[in-house]
Predict the structure of ABC-type phosphate/phosphonate transport system ATPase component.
Amino acid sequence: MEVSLRDVSVRFGESLPALDGVSLEVASGERLAVVGSSGAGKSTLFRTLTRGVPATGEVVLGGRDLYRLGSRELRAVRRRVGTVRQGYDLVPQLPAGMNVALGELVGLGPLASLAAFFRGPGAGISRRAAEALGRVGMPEKILARTGDLSGGQQQRVAVARLLVQRPDLVLADEPFSAVDPVTSEKVFETLLDLNREGATLIVNLHDVALARRFPRLVALKDGRVAYDGPPQALTESRLAGIYSTDPARLPANGDGKDARTRSGTPLPGGLDGVASH
């Protein structure tokens, strides 16, 4: 799925803009990493790609301007978008396999989601969920209560859900934040597999060394694009300038996220801005 952002801005109240005139063109099947300091606008950028926040400008996915679509058309586009976030968007009371199977519900309307949720997965979906957990190295956890899993295991469940959903666009927000180096490599390879199968892959990272493994790197600073190009052309001095941030833009809660951009409680299997808006 091709992605086009044209002069996109997001402002929360009277504060500094979270995004300020961002323009990006991402080809179908491309993969890129997005980096930047806390408060640079990375998470807000991801939320515009699912119409999760009010924005000006144009956000075009697969030739459709998200901010001009009606609810039915918007759901159809969102079904083609898969996300992995730091909060995982999992239902802790459910078995891991059921959370993976919920990838089938992404982008459905609230009533359709609830009906499918209570109906339960069919044999085909259950088989795909088991296969997906196997691909992320957790076949034995299919019946385990998701809330009892470690943070790294829950991250892998969220990635396995993408394999069931089979999206055309993958948005991964810090997908390696809660996993050890070995698991990080497994998750990375799984995301690359999705990309090799044709999905466009956009990953939000704090780890610049890992971001340099992508063919294209986009750096945000103060809500603007400060660099867009091959990672080898991004010098250390320029990178240092990108990571020097105006203190007024730093999030007050200290966790690297602006509280104003956080999501509400998702629907079962729903990803903020994908199934619950």
Summary: DSSP finds nine helices and ten strands in the chain. The radius of gyration is 18 Å.
